[in-house]
Specification:
elongated; 76 residues; mainly alpha
């Protein structure tokens, strides 16, 4: 128990570092997923949910997303 308590600072620092790296990967991965960054009116992950019509996207972007999802389903 003494060993654990004497290294608790390192354990907390490692946990914070892992969490920060994980958050950065998700954030930047979503931001760059379509090459255009976050879309206005959409939350993270909106373009991948298959329900693009509920987003606040322009009509042309919704059509492009739906076509991409349909193409992905055809290849699976």
């Amino acid at each position: 128990m003494d060993y654990f308590l004497s290294h608790i600072g390192y354990i907390i620092l490692a946990a914070v570092a892992i969490a920060a790296i994980g958050f950065a990967l998700v954030y930047f991965g979503e931001k760059n997923s379509d090459g255009e960054g976050f879309q206005g009116g959409c939350g993270m992950g909106c373009s991948g949910c298959g329900n693009a019509a509920s987003c606040g996207l322009p009509e042309k972007d919704i059509k492009r997303i739906e076509a991409s999802i349909a193409k992905d389903k055809e290849t699976d």
